[in-house]
Amino acid sequence: MRELLDLSPAELREYFASLGEPRYRARQVFEWAWKHLVWDFSRMTNLPVSLRERLTQEFTIGAAEPGASLMDAEEGTEKILLKLPDGEGVETVLMREEDRRTVCVSTQVGCPIGCAFCATGKMGFHRNLSAGEIALQVLFFARKLKAEGERVTHVVLMGMGEPLLNYEATIKAIRNLNHPWGLNLGARRFTVSTVGIVPGILRLAQEGMQLNLAVSLHAPWDDLRAELVPLAKTYSIREVLEATEEYIRATKRRITYEYVLISGVNDSPAAARALGKLLKGRLAHVNLIPFNPAPGLPFRRPSLHRVEAFKRELLKRGINVTVRHSRGVRIQAGCGQLRAQLRANPG
Ligand code: SF4
User: Cα(85) to centroid of ligand 1, in Å?
Assistant: First the structure.
């Protein structure tokens, strides 16, 4: 069976043309699945019954079973493990913050980057997600919110995996979620987070979409960065920054630089000064994320004093900076911690 959410509107048109159906069938079906969030062909009442039956035999829609979930009422986060038909699981998080409803999605099962401070990195790489599997994470929470009279307002691609190493599926999922026939989420509502895959950044710059780009730097020096983000050593910090400048030229969007602060590793005043020097004068915002300790990871969280001192060094150089004290998505929610926990306690 094929997954309907894997298809773009153009592919749906082709499919219905191959059946000798009128062109408008593509829009009808896309609207049911992506806008009305109806995932049962028998309820698509403006389609002939025979067509509904045929679609039921050929396609699944949103084929994933919700598994265990974790709620943090104080933080307003809800994490869910969605079980895919092949038995793999994918983590998705909903964050409720004032009037924002942000879904943090995964783009791969596991991750090939292997960041030293990340639980997903330790898990290794299992496989890429398809466009439909990426999108259904957003639609899963869109359906839940709809029942509560709310809607998804933002999407961050910061869960498990490196989006720019699963480029085609990631862009297809974004384009489908952005499509006016569906959720119609504006391009500026999406943030693609990368460790700095240079060819991917340059390609994204050419997509003609004003997507937000977040780059995980984690160190101001190449040698330290290579220790923390092993796969990223293919691209020097200089090359990454050249690519982000190109991204700004093409999209006029400010770049967010993410920096997980780890005690005694990358949180020194010298590191703060070096980071400040690198980013001074650029269209940049820095997110400082104090490391959240996790089982099996040999790092410590820096003191509040140390975090504030790091922040001050950046502010002194005129750099916008935010400390994300508890919402370190990559660490707390997006990096396999939920999945690892479920594996340990499968019941
Ligand atoms: S932090 Fe992100 S890029 Fe690094 S291993 Fe974890 S999921 Fe992959």
Answer: 24
